[in-house]
Automatic annotation (TrEMBL):
UniProt cofactor(s): Zn(2+)
The name this protein goes by in its record: DNA-formamidopyrimidine glycosylase family protein
Family according to the record: Belongs to the FPG family.
FPG-type domain segment(s): 239-273
Species, as recorded: Nocardioides oceani
Amino acid sequence: MPELPEVEALALDLKGRLDGRAIVKVHIAAFSALKTFDPPLTALEGTLVDDVTRHGKFLDLDCSGTHLVLHLARAGWVRWREEVPTIPPKPSTKSTLAVRIVLDDGSGLDVTEAGTRKSLAMYVVRDPLDVPGIATLGPDPLTDDFTVERLGEILQREGRKQIKGVLRHQGTIAGIGNAYSDEILHAARMSPYKPASSIDGEELQTLHDALRTTVGDAVARSRGLAASELKGEKKSNLAVHGRTGQPCPVCGDVVREVSFADSSLQYCPTCQTGGKPLADRRMSKLLK
Ligand SMILES: [Zn+2]
């Protein structure tokens, strides 16, 4: 799933390609992905792309004041095409294409969604704040006013909730998902289960540093990369996320995981939990 750094880089890449171009046609193939009906999708046709920005993990194409907002979710992606096929795409259960945007010079972009879990969401709105997920976003962790004090206030407000869930909740802090929350906690040498409000003093400073460095470095690495290169870039720099069973790059211990109904987290016991593996319901079931 693309998170803040990838969406930031996508926005930058698309801005360079789309700036000042006119949209001539929008073909929709996955009708279920479109969450709004007014303005209609056709309102984008004939507009100029003025800007491409990011709000949390949402991508925002400003098309002469009408906004096409995309939430790529788990398996959504944007593919740039120097030349789009002239035949309109047919809606098909086999195709990954959700929407195709054709530009005035024959180039364009495909928004795709792989896999069976259809969670890609598209919105056509007059104001990005009309998208419920954007209106309720927490502060962006890369802005100057996201200080140690601000993070401290957020954590106090969240009380005894586990830090892993707090970091990835979009209404609390914008843009961090399952992958970067694992990476931030590994960099901070902190248990994913630590209660938010218990983090203060030196630990709070450490967590703030880890958050800004992890997300900031990922943005710096991703900037300037084309959409097609971003996934590989993200994967090759992860220390624990998605690396169950492999050695921790810091201490060499084996990266472990805890699985939940629809996700899993990865961590290093030596770096983060005093050497003790966390209980994992699936693992204990297997051992019974
Ligand atoms: Zn380690």
